Amino acid sequence: MVDRYRKLTSSGPGAFLAKRLGLPRPENLERHRPGRPVLSGPVVVDGADGGRLTEPLRELVASLPSAERAGADESPAALVFDATGINDSTRLRALHAFFHPRVRSLAPCGRVVVVGTPPELARDAREAAAQHALEGFVRSVGKELRRGATAHLLLVAPGAEGAVESTVRFALSARSAYVSGQVVRVAEPVGPAGVPADWERPLDGRVAVVTGAARGIGEVVAETLARDGATVVCLDVPGQAAELRAVAERVGGDALPLDVTAADAGDTLVAHLRERHGGLDVMVHNAGITRDKTLGRMDADRWDAVLSVNLTAVERVTERLLAPDDSGEPVLREGGRIVCTSSMSGIAGNVGQTNYAASKAGLIGLVQALAPTAAERGITVNAVAPGFIETRMTAAIPLFVREAGRRMNSLRQGGLPVDVAEAIAWFASPGSGGVNGQVLRVCGQSLLGA
Ligand SMILES: NC(=O)c1ccc[n+]([C@@H]2O[C@H](COP(=O)([O-])OP(=O)(O)OC[C@H]3O[C@@H](n4cnc5c(N)ncnc54)[C@H](O)[C@@H]3O)[C@@H](O)[C@H]2O)c1
Nearest Cα to 99, choosing from 88, 89, 111, 87? Predict the structure, then answer.
């Protein structure tokens, strides 16, 4: 799908006109390309006195590959502030002291990253209040930033300081182009130590399944996981077999035409994985459908179809992957990853989508309930909640509703399938064992459900 308005306002006369008329001018977001350094320029790192992460963050940022800037352009690519030392509201002033003089010089598509402590782990009420305050700060900064810049709050549990690299890399890099104003929690990692030998190919030697891989977001998830080194089993309904085979061939994986709602879908998938790959490391539940109608006009078939594909099939297949099979072990190996595709509809609700929003909210419940028990086997369970993503699904929305959906976020544009895929790849990474039971909105900081 082409966003013609964004194209127009990035051209000389279009940009001039939009500026004169006070119309929004969506930035061309920088996205990751293989070989592109994590940092697009200099990064300023500081922290409040007594912070646990200021030194580790300085060391980490210094170790990350960075692009050379032409000439004397010293505008920071990112501003990183460790706020874990702030244990009282009077000390929140340190945020102002750090960001106020610098925020306006942030480079286009720059990053604001604030690091704090989960408020529920604070030592007393004052510290909890101060740490919770960071959320309001970051969400507001995200709304103020211009030119494609984004803001992130990382809440790092005490003891999890060594587990932040994968998340800091994601937040600082172009991989998180369409994620802003979100809170990510990092806890002590579950399962085997998982720092990737090569951060460019963290999934080397791993097997992934992507459902709904014949097109749209699923197709790009398959490409992205394959780029990161995984062997990808591409799954979609038999009616999409030709498209599915083409995707599987392109990503060097294999195609499994299968309806996830079939009674034996779990058995068929497990048999395929055992026979061809021995086991599974990453399960991406991406297949999903909409059958929109307002509730009074919605027949039971629409309700059933959406709930069965989007939620019941995910529950059933996941149960099967986590249960021991004939070998005595579950097919999803220790250190495995499960990622579900929820939606902003599941968070904010949407007219005409009682069925869809129920299914997508149900996925959030599933992720949160499974995460603690799956962690006992080193498995993480997370979800992405995409906002407006440019796909066939959103191309079918009537023009004016589509245009409103596209612009009602801090970045004033729709996201691309690759933005969802990058978030899934970050959850899937062996380095992300500290990220469990979470829902990441990939929505450009949508005004809905904010
Ligand atoms: N596009 C967006 O803006 C957006 C926003 C939020 C969430 N999502 C979610 O992202 C996921 C992908 O969306 P998309 O826009 O790429 O949709 P899409 O319709 O382009 O692709 C979905 C794929 O899932 C497959 N599928 C449907 N039912 C299936 C079944 N029973 N078994 C196996 N495969 C099945 C379809 O054949 C299709 O290839 C969905 O879960 C959707 O709800 C999309």
Answer: 111
